[in-house]
Amino acid sequence: MKEKLELIKNILGADPYSLVIGEIVEETDSRKEKNLDNGLKDYYSLMSGYKILNGGVITIYGQREISNIQFYTEEMPGGSDEWVCIGKIENYPLFISKKDGRVSCLFGNPLDQSYIIESYGDFNNFLYNYYLGKKYIEIGFKFFQSGGVTSTVGSKDDDWYIFLERNNLF
Question: In the prediction, which pLDDT does 125 show?
Fold first, then answer.
């Protein structure tokens, strides 16, 4: 995974207009989490070397950045005891389960009960299949189906999807 992220970072770095499409920023002073046996192990292992992974509508923050967005966990069932907010899909918070590493997004507004929690498997599955894979176009599909948005959040017309496809990164 790190090799693929490095390849993408180099491709993006060669294009001055790439910030519109995506951005991968390495962390110069990475933290190492020790003895993690829970669902956060894969996240901490990979993200110890990155400040941000941004591609299309998906943004995943590194360890130093996530402390500022943990207030979102109050909206998830189980709150901060069960979840860590690791980023966002468009404007919707993206979480990882402390127990099993499942990545989920909270689409909508929990206050007025018009929300859907969409899950994408564990962290590695999310990266391989959604952030860097063909399933990117399925991001937010349940929310779209429920009438929450008028168009899908990720699509084949999205610059990030086109970038991945054009560079044979699937």
Answer: 97
Non-local (6+) Cβ contacts of 164 within 8 A are: 55, 132, 133, 136, 170
30 near 17, Cβ under 8 Å? Answer: no
The 8-class DSSP code of residue 69 comes to G
Could you tell me which of 161, 106, 92, 97 has the C-alpha nearest to residue 130?
161
What are the residues facing 84 on neighbouring strands?
A: 96
Q: Between 129 and 29, name the one with better pLDDT.
A: 129
DSSP secondary structure string for all residues of 98-164: TTT-EEEEEEEEGGGTEEEEEEEEEHHHIIIIIISSGGGGGTTHHHHHTTS-SS-SS-TTSHHHHHH
Closest CA to 88 of 24, 35, 25, 153: 153
Amino acid at 71: F
* Cα angle 41, 121, 39; round to 5: 20
pLDDT, one tens digit per residue, over 130-150 is: 999 999 988 877 667 766 665
The mean pLDDT value for 23-47 works out to 82
